[in-house]
Each structure stands twice: as C-alpha cells, then as structure tokens.
Design a protein that fits this description.
The complex is a heterodimer. Chain A is α+β, with helices and mostly antiparallel strands. In chain A, strands 2-1-5-4-3-8-9 form a 7-stranded mixed sheet. A two-stranded antiparallel ribbon of chain A has the order 6-7. The longest helix of chain A is centred in the first third of the chain and has 18 residues. Chain B is globular. The chains are: A alpha+beta, B alpha+beta.
Chain lengths: 209, 273
C-alpha cells in the first residue's frame, strides 16, 4: 500500500477524534465510539449489532452499537448513582483489563451502558469516567432511550427494576461479546475472581504476531 | 448484503409496512382504541418492593385490549411485515419455535382448524410482540398495568375479595393448559370488560425483565445479593396471592427471544391526559 492512503487515514482519524472530544487534548488513538462503522462483512444472525437503537456516548457522539464492531467487548449495565454493587461490577471489569495479556489488552474493550438515562446524561457519564479513571481508548460509556435500554437488557438477560427512591435493583451480570457482537460468555455475581472472563476474552483476541 | 445495508433496508421495509398498514388495515392502527377498554387510574400492589417503598403504586389510566392478540391479527401483521415471518425472522429476536405450530409463513393452519384465527397468538417472542404493537400503533402493557388490570374481579375492583372470582382463579391456576387453546373472549369478562387475563395464556409485558425473583419458594423474599444489586430488602408482600407469585416467577424465567405454546400478549395504549 502506498503512503498516501495511510496519511489520509491518519488525517481522517484526527478529524474524527477532534470532533468527539469535549476538551482539547492530544489523543493519538481513536475512542471506540468515534470509530467509523465497519461495513465490509455481514454480521451474524446472533449479533447484537443488528440492533438499530441509537445511543449517546459520554463524549457526545450518537452511535449505533455496530460502531463497536471489530473488538471483543466486556459489557455491563449499570447506573452512576448505584450505591451497592455497581462499583464492584466496574472493579471486576478493571480487574479483567489488568489481567489481560498484552495481545488481549490491545484488542478488548469495555462497555458500560446506563439503565438510568434520566440521570446518566453524557455529562454525568463523563464525570463518572473521570472518577473511575476509565481510559478513553478502551472504555465506552453509553446512554439511550428507556425502550432501547429495555431491549438491550432483554437481549443480554439482565433484569432491572426501579424503586420509588430512584435506585435500581438489577442483575450483576458481565457479558463478553466477540468482535461480531455475539454473546460468547456471561458471568453473574460479584466475586473477585475474573479468570473465566479473562479466558473468554483471550480466546477472542487474534494471536500475537 | 452487509449488516448495515441490511439494517437500512430493514428500516425501509418497516416504514413501508407502517404505510401499508395504515392504508390497508381497518383495525386499530396509529393509536386507535378499537377492541380496547379504558381502565381508570388504579392501584397496583407490587409483589416485590424495597422496604421503604410505598405498598401501593398508582397506575395511570390506560387502554387495554379486551382479549389477547389473535392468530388472525398476527397473520395480518406478518403479511404486512415480511421480516417477521417465520422463515425470515432474525434468530436473535425469536428462537427456533417461533410460530412453530403454523403450517407456513402465512398459514396458521385454517384447514385443520377453521377457528384458528380466533385463538390467541402464541409462540411469539417479546421482540415479535413489541414489533406487532408498534405496527399497530400501540405498545405492550407494563407489568404494573397488567397486574392492575388482573387484580380486578368480575364485579369488584379487588377480585380477591370476591368469592366467585377467587374460586375461578384457583381453578384456572390449578389446572393444566388444554392442548388446543380456547377462542379468545370465551371466558367471562372482568369489571371493565377485559377477558382472559387469567386462565388462557401467560402474557408478555414491556418490562417483563423487571421481575427479580430468584427462589422457587414463597419464602424466598430477599434479593440474592450476589446476583442482584438492590436497595433494602426487596420482599414479597402477600404470600396468599399465589397467582401473582406464579406470574412473577414465570416472568423472571423468561428471556426475550423465548417462544412458548402458552405465552402470548395483548396491547395497551396510554390514555390521553
């Protein structure tokens, strides 16, 4: 391939990234929500990326889930005002991130979707990202309409219910999607070990060259 | 065809469906309340609630189908919207038993059973039910709405206070489902003209996955802390309302693509203020 397409790609990348950022900062890699949609090969019949629901990331970008295609995803439904288990759920995800070997870590991404769209605006999610120290490169935080959330939760098998105080009772479920958006592994509970999830993600990553 | 081109063409098909449905269908499209009853605002006593939650919630007034959606109505829907036909449905949105008792994509089996079009539509997934509701210009009822309607007896707003209704409930929930489901509307209507909330089929609700039952027994009242994040002790209110407990347990076991031979649905519509 000649250098020119590479240069063009680099410029496009920088333009896309600059369009998404809320403050000026040099980002050399594209945040997942800011990627271009991949349209080359068809998704499978079991891919969650077939959903055409629209979501807004904490970076203010409106996307469909298919934008995340091409990278395995560790997914959790949560809400930022959660007083109980969500911090543990996110901690599990961070533990997975830390436990991945270098090849796996390069490829895998982490997706948090809010079940509390009223309070979890993009700005609120961005503040949550800062509090939790979640990298822009690998973590995507999304909010969407209540119907879309209900639909995605139904597909993942997550149950949730709002109480009168605005707290949500919900399943503590982590899901691993492969690069095509198919569910390949799920893990319930808050225990510290994440070996099964790490193994599931590693199996999905391409072998190191 | 790539998935995204597919998604675009699916959108086009859906818009075409909606247009066709408005033009061709004489039944309730675009928010019509034909075949529905208006239920006034009422109380819903959640089976499970957090300790500090009120015991009753108010459910705003809404319209509810008097009977479950029939196979005839579902046939109209799949005629108008090909992507929901059995041979074309996306496997993510409906499992392999979707409409399995139909003879073909557009044949619910009239030859074998001349009255089949008036029987409740079953073997439909939650996605299919929602798609039908959207096509018709309505929606699925929420669980509070469904339960508020189901609490009504034949003559009283609180069915459990009516001996005749209680007897009927016990008979319905105590017996096995017949192999051939009766025609919709053949059971006695409750206070606001709604049929078949009990004794015919289980029904999907919009938020069926808000049911967080983890145990089999009526003694299992708390949330299993490892599996669920939740405030206080979300617990069961009244163990004598066994049917409500059964329904909550049943909903808890459902997953959105499931299709079952005794699981159907009906539509609702918010009442204009």
């Amino acid at each position: 391939m000649t250098p020119l397409p590479f240069l063009a790609l680099a410029w496009i990348t920088l333009l896309l990234v600059s369009g998404c950022r809320s403050k000026p900062e040099v980002v050399t890699e594209v945040a997942p929500c800011c990627r271009k949609l991949l349209t080359n090969t068809p998704a499978s019949d079991r891919s969650l990326f077939q959903l055409d629901s629209e979501w807004t990331s904490d970076l203010g970008k409106t996307i469909r889930l298919g934008t995340l295609r091409g990278h395995p995803q560790v997914v959790a439904l949560f809400f930022s005002h959660c007083e109980f288990a969500c911090p543990l759920l996110v901690a599990r995800m961070k533990a997975i991130e830390a436990a991945l070997p270098p090849s796996g870590r390069k490829d895998a991404e982490f997706l948090l979707i809010s079940i509390d769209p009223d309070r979890d605006t993009p700005a609120a999610l961005h503040a949550y990202r800062a509090r939790q120290g979640l990298s822009l490169r690998r973590w995507t935080l999304l909010t969407g309409g209540s119907g879309s959330v209900r639909e995605l939760a139904a597909l993942l098998g997550v149950q949730y219910q709002r109480d009168a105080r605005g707290q949500y009772a919900h399943s503590n479920l982590l899901t691993v999607l492969n690069a095509e958006g198919e569910v390949v592994h799920q893990s319930s509970g808050l225990r510290a070990e994440v070996d099964d999830l790490v193994a599931a993600v590693v199996r999905l990553s391409p072998p190191a060259h | 065809m790539t998935v995204f081109a597919h998604a675009r063409s699916v959108r086009l098909v859906l818009h075409a469906c909606l247009l066709m449905a408005v033009v061709l269908s004489e039944r309730a499209c675009g928010g019509s309340t034909a075949g529905m009853s208006l239920l006034p605002a009422g109380n819903y006593r959640p089976l499970f609630r957090a300790t500090n939650d009120p015991e009753t919630q108010t459910v705003a007034s809404f319209w509810l189908d008097r009977t479950p959606v029939t196979r005839g109505q579902f046939l109209d829907f799949v005629k108008a919207c090909p992507k929901w036909r059995r041979s074309r449905v996306i496997r993510l949105f409906a499992d392999t038993s979707y409409l399995s008792d139909w003879k073909a994509d557009l044949d619910p089996g009239i030859d074998k059973d001349p009255q089949v079009l008036s029987r409740p539509a079953v073997q439909v997934s939650w996605f299919a039910a929602r798609a039908y509701a959207e096509w018709r210009g309505c929606r699925l009822p929420t669980t509070p709405e469904w339960e508020r309607a189901a609490a009504e007896g034949f003559l009283l707003a609180e069915g459990l206070k009516e001996p005749e209704f209680r007897t009927a409930l016990a008979r319905w929930y105590g017996s096995a489902a017949p192999e051939v489901l009766p025609l919709v509307g053949s059971g006695r209507a409750t206070l606001h003209g709604i049929h078949d909330l009990h004794g015919l089929i289980w029904e999907w609700t919009e938020d069926f996955n808000s049911s967080l039952v983890t145990g089999d027994s009526r003694e299992d009242t708390g949330l299993e802390r490892q599996l669920f994040c939740g405030a206080g002790s979300v617990g069961a209110r009244e163990r004598s309302d066994f049917p409500a407990f059964m329904r909550a347990g049943f909903r808890s076991s459902l997953r959105s693509p499931y299709t079952l031979s005794n699981l159907g649905f009906r539509c609702a519509l918010s009442a204009k203020p």
